Each structure stands twice: as structure tokens, then as C-alpha cells.
Amino acid sequence: MRKLCIGFLLLVTLVGCSTKMGYYFLDWVIEWKLEEYVTLNKQQQIEFETTLNEFLIWHRTEELPRYEQQLSQLLLLFDKQTLTPALWAEQVDEAKAHWARILGFVEPPFIPLISSFSDDQVKQVIEQLRVNEKKLNQKYLGKDSQALVEMANKRIEKQVTKWLGKLSKQQKQAINEYNLSRASTLDMWLEYRHEWIRLFEQALKNRHNPSALSHSLRVLMLEPDSIKSEIYKASVEANTAKFGALLIRLNGLATSKQKQRFNNKLRDLITDLNQLSEQP
After folding, report:
1. Are the C-beta atoms of 222 and 130 separated by less than 8 Å?
2. Are 276 and 64 a contacting pair, CB within 8 Å?
3. What's the CA gap between 86 and 104, in Å, rounded?
4. Burial, 12: exposed, middle or buried (Cβ in 10 Å; 0-12, 13-18, 19+)?
5. What is the pTM of this model?
6. Cβ atoms 128, 36 nearer than 8 A
7. For residues 28 and 81, what is the distance between their CA atoms, to the nearest angstrom?
8. CB atoms within 10 A of CB 89
9. Mind listing the pLDDT tens digit for each residue in 78-92?
């Protein structure tokens, strides 16, 4: 639910740290994650695997070329240092569109599967969501603003270091200034997650009405802004713009060695995506 906090790196997470290897095992990873939430019966497992196979074929042939195209655009923007706040906003919108297409593809075939859930399976799903919610509350609640900024600094520094290598004092300072200046959304984010789970539980209780279930899931998955407060939406939008400004600043502070490292890693990723999308 904080998909944009790492910006364009969102695309990378879809195919794993080691792109080819991660993608080859994506079906296993998805099934493993599903098992954290619910145990399917034999028929449900067959239906899920059929849908998953169809999704992976579609994603590889239709979506990976789109990721490749966007990352190629970003490579050029960073290489030429022509990324602007307006162009960053376009990249964010494009990333959102990737996510929307994925959800739009999987939603129709998953409606019958979810409709077939037993009461015990629904209970499994909601209990795991509550466990995850509790862990997040324990991780973040009760910490003062300085501790939260330090956590955010470490999180972003870790991500950026993967792409640029060792960061300079100026780059670390830029990250710290970003985290100090961005609007505080933690409480609103946790409140939104809580409300999302409540509405999802309600949708699952009405799962035997496919039309109502489909409508609820489309709202929760494709139109989550509709259940966010206006101040939360405005804060997220402002923070997203500030994150774009941070990327532009980090790029301006990057050494030639860092830029070469970034370009090489991004070109390798683009090559991997191209090869994966062309595989039969």
C-alpha cells in the first residue's frame, strides 16, 4: 500500500532481485504467498493454477515489454539529466497503470474462486491480514518522529545503494531532508489499512453474490483512493512529488562511477526483460 515510496523501483520488484531467476520461480512465489493466507481445497487449487498459468503467460508477453519501455525511458531521462517533476508525475501514472492492468486481468477469473471459499477459509484470510496489521502497528506505533525518520532514511538508503553504490554525505543528507520535509502519513496509512481490511472482510462475507463481490473488489483493488480521506490523498500526492525531486537531486549529486553503475544495472534489467518477454 506504499507502492510509490520507491518510485520506479516498483517495476523491479515484479520480477525479483535476480530478474530471470526470480521470474522463473514467480509461480512458486505467488503460490507460497497465497498459502500464507488460505489453504485451498483440491478443486480450488486446480482453478488457481490454471488462472496463474494464464496470468504468467499474459504478463510475460504483454506486460514485460511495457516495463522494458518505461525503464528505457527512465534510463534516458537519468542519463541525460532531463527528468523533471512533470515527467516524474507521468512515470508515476504509468506505474499505476501497470498495477491496474494486472488487477484488471486477475479479477474476473478470481471471482468464482473467491466465491467458493468456505467460512473457515475466509476466517483464515482475515486472521492473517490482522496478524500483518498487528506487526505493522508494533513496528511503527509509539515511535517518535526522529525514530521514524531514521527508519525511513535507512530504508531508502538501502534501496538507492543497490543502484548507485556507496552514498556520499551529500546524498545521505538529501535523503534525510526529504524525509524531514515530507508530510506525515503514518497514522492515516495505518487507518486506511484497517478500513481496507474491514471492507475486504465485508466483501468476503458477501462472496456468494458474484456481482457484489466483483464491485467490492474493483473498488478495493482498482479504486482504493475512494476510501482514503482527502487529506491523506493530498499528502500522498505531495510526498510522491517530493520523492521525484529527491531522485532528481540524487542524480545530480551522483559521481560518474555511480552513474555508470546505475546505467549498467538498468541496462542489464532491460535486457533481461526483453529476453523474458520473447521466450515462448
Report:
1. no
2. yes
3. 27
4. buried
5. 0.86
6. yes
7. 39
8. 14
9. 989 999 999 999 998
